């Protein structure tokens, strides 16, 4: 069986100064058992093929996902190297796996939480409340009270109504005013739902002061998977205006949150390095380091997208003739819109999978519709067809770069369970203080 084309690999992290002793155990709880310890000559891609072979030889050809934790560590290093003046607060909603959160907690990231459950997850790992931002501008009162009880002080808001709730339930909060941005060119815009206009900010800052609340800065989000790095330039300049208004209203403005929107892969759209240069230039212009403003960000997709590879099995097949006599294939897979491919309908270009199959010669390609396993006719992986060779029931397709907004959005509609996830840890993580030993066939951390 030939191996799939290599997916994005990890870069060396041996130069990182952070010690990962915290990976061994969190609050007395052992690590989950889904860990695969890679040897010096092994790769996560090889593990995908090994797992496919194991499942092909069994009666359970279930979908699965493999996460390479070394890539996660290398993405953290890449972010810190490109934007050393920005502290990353990982967006938990992107992928809330305990493995992912524990690795990032040990690496020293902060966390962007949007609900009480996410707060509980992160605080349960022993993360200090000062390393958390509760960044949902529209919060249930009970969740605000939970944040107050557990010392999470940094919260966002974008309306008077939210200020009233915070004044009642968390008067000691340190608030960031979330600003609306121009994000129409982002793949997943957010400003239709969140953010105050620049014109409304003066009134909101005065209202916060009158309620006895402390506004300590401003935040924005240019939309997930931003396609225009210049969106950051304008948003940062607008935040400088908010800082001036806030100081005029008597607030001590000291924190800027530039949100997320960073690309997960470099296949299309702007490169991360280009975006980082634009952001650095804008910060140097409007928030130079000598002013002492703390700058944070909320990367999610950038950290997680390239970490995971998904493998799905063809469970059924149908060939149809199109008008004019051309042949089209329909493949029914054991994972789909209600599982790992929830965002497939919103992606501008469908992902073309890697076919795990040997062919004697270069096979012809056909337009193929990829359906998920449920009885919902809209359960398609993508709205457009992809071109693939003719395959058989039981064949496997591999999708690289599936770590962002996949497992965290999966459900069990129609009784089809989400893909199982296993995790690999290579020598690069272990050289930072993580080791493994084999005991009675089980991997344990030492």
Automatic annotation (TrEMBL):
Q: Where is the Orn/DAP/Arg decarboxylase 2 N-terminal domain?
A: 72-304
Q: Which PROSITE patterns match?
A: ODR_DC_2_1, ODR_DC_2_2
Membrane-crossing ranges are: none
Q: Which UniProt keywords apply?
A: Lyase, Polyamine biosynthesis, Pyridoxal phosphate
What InterPro entries does this protein's entry cite? Ala_racemase/Decarboxylase_C, De-COase2_C, De-COase2_CS, De-COase2_N, De-COase2_pyr-phos_BS, Orn/DAP/Arg_de-COase, Orn_de-COase, PLP-binding_barrel
| SUPFAM superfamilies per the UniProt record, alphabetical | Alanine racemase C-terminal domain-like, PLP-binding barrel
Q: Give one Pfam hit by family name.
A: Orn_DAP_Arg_deC
Gene Ontology CC: cytoplasm
Q: Indicate where the modification N6-(pyridoxal phosphate)lysine is found in the sequence.
A: 93
Q: Which cofactor does it need?
A: pyridoxal 5'-phosphate
- In the record, what terms sit under GO molecular function? carboxy-lyase activity
Q: Where is the Orn/DAP/Arg decarboxylase 2 C-terminal domain?
A: 306-403
**Any keyword Chaperone?**
no
* CDD domains recorded: PLPDE_III_ODC
The family note in this entry says: Belongs to the Orn/Lys/Arg decarboxylase class-II family.
- Name-wise, this protein is Antizyme inhibitor 2
**From which organism does this entry originate?**
Papio anubis (Olive baboon)
